[in-house]
Amino acid sequence: MAAGNKLKSLRNRCNVTVRQVEQASGRIAEAKGDKRFRISNGWLAQLENGISEPSICKLFTLSVIYHADFRELARLYNVDLDEIQKYESIAYPDVTQLRPDIHDSFTTRPVAQSSTTLTPHLAPANNRAMEDERNLQYGYIGLADYTMYPLIRPGALVEIDISQNKLQIAAAHNEFERPIFFIELRDGYACGWCQLQGNQLLIIPHPSSPSTVRRFTYPREAEIVGRVVGYHTRCVDAEPVQAMPRS
Fold first, then answer.
1. Is 0.85 topped by the overall pTM?
2. Burial bucket for residue 242 (CB in 10 Å: 0-12, 13-18, 19+)
């Protein structure tokens, strides 16, 4: 059913005439001191016939008159306010980000994007204890993020234990034992090996990576989200690597 027809059905269920909608909207517009909230009966007829689409002000008015959830009315026009975070990562695909929009198993591949992201609500595929699950968040390594390449390639999904958010000095016999951390920056996220030098946090790339060491004032400019305890990554590049940018 088209959006206009659904609005008409909703009006009929409320037993409200187009004239009553016009009168009620006039009172709302007067109370708001803004005529954009007013709905004429002629415009409402165009809306219900699919000729017009409502502005955000008029959609607010309809939600009040029809006792309807504004979010549900917005969804009639393919506007889902719950998808804002999801489309932030799509708008900036090269950036490393948190990913709150992934709800499938940990082995599910996310939509390819360039930014590293974090996902606090992803359900892991194994039977991890509930206490452990509450400590997990998930991140996406952006397509432009080569910090841990080739150990963790761009486009990887990483599992983060947020209870392990303190840097500790520990001997590592190989690169697999060396703790990898997910870091929140002022303008985004990063993922890599870390080292503290006074109040300076160093994000250290893999030795085979084209990226360079980055330095931030800790914790003012960078905070540890948690330790990466798992990752889903390709073992080969999706495309030949050519002139990867250094960061």
1. no
2. exposed
N- to C-terminal Cα distance for the chain? 50
Phi, psi for residue 96 in degrees, rounded to 5: -75, 130
Residue 69 confidence (pLDDT) = 94
**pLDDT score of 117:** 63
> How far is it, in rounded angstroms, from Cα 54 to Cα 45?
12
Taking the C-alpha atoms of residue 224 and residue 23, their distance in angstroms, rounded to an integer, is: 55
Residues 244 and 25: their CA atoms lie apart, in Å, by 57
In the chain the domains, ranked by start, together with CATH numbers, are: 3-79 (1.10.260.40), 88-232 (2.10.109.10)
Show the 3-state SS of 141-181.
Answer: CCCCCCCCCCCCCCCCEEEEECCCCCCCCCCCCCCCCCCCE
In whole angstroms, give the CA distance from residue 82 to residue 114: 22
Per-residue tokens: 17: 């005439």
Residues in the chain with pLDDT values less than 70 = 1, 89, 98-133, 238-247
